[in-house]
Model the fold of this input.
Amino acid sequence: MKITMSIRFGVCATALGFVTVLVAFGQGRAGAGTSTSLSASSLPDAPAPAGKPSPRANSSAAADQAYEPITAGGRVKWILTSTFGFASLAGGVISSAYGTAVNHPSEYGTHWEGFGKRYGMRLSGVATSNAMEAGLGALWGEDPRYFREPEKSFGARCGNIIKQTFYARHRDGDFQVAYARIMAVTGSNFLSNAWRVNSEADAEHAAIRTVEGFGGRMAGNAWREFWPSVRARSWHK
Done:
């Protein structure tokens, strides 16, 4: 069955991503240092540098100076967190529930089994995309993590969310086009046509899924940008 193939392929792609990260690490390409401590360089989503906020003209330079490239261990942790973290799993529940309610694709039906198939299909796609992004990015130092800017205005933070959907930091700390992410999101969605049901296994649906993939990434960035602030205020009260 295609659903079984999708799960197997997702596992294989994830394993391949891990191997690519480890190979790049062995070649000294995964980033500076090999520490696995919970520093800013090893967290799935790196927070903004701590300290007193500086003027806006100097904030970018200060952030660049504080930036540490992601390690091989950090890439593996990012894959796991981005695939099996709360935001990802919750998003899967919502999208699978919606697909079951409207019966899309129709081959899965509107029962619990159909929900499970939709959830498994999405999870395998997310795992494939994340493994590809982390693995390819390791070859040229593209950092898949999201970097918050809590000291900026609401509008600037929204701009940061949009920017980091299509741009990523590289070893020098500068933001550049996220080539690995673009290749991973696009490639995984077109590649998944090989194991999807016939009604959505075509180029048109793959293109739609690609757009949805970047939309989902933007929503995830918004969660990472604002949820820590909301949680801190709620706990403070």
Q: What stands out?
A: The longest helix spans residues 203-236.
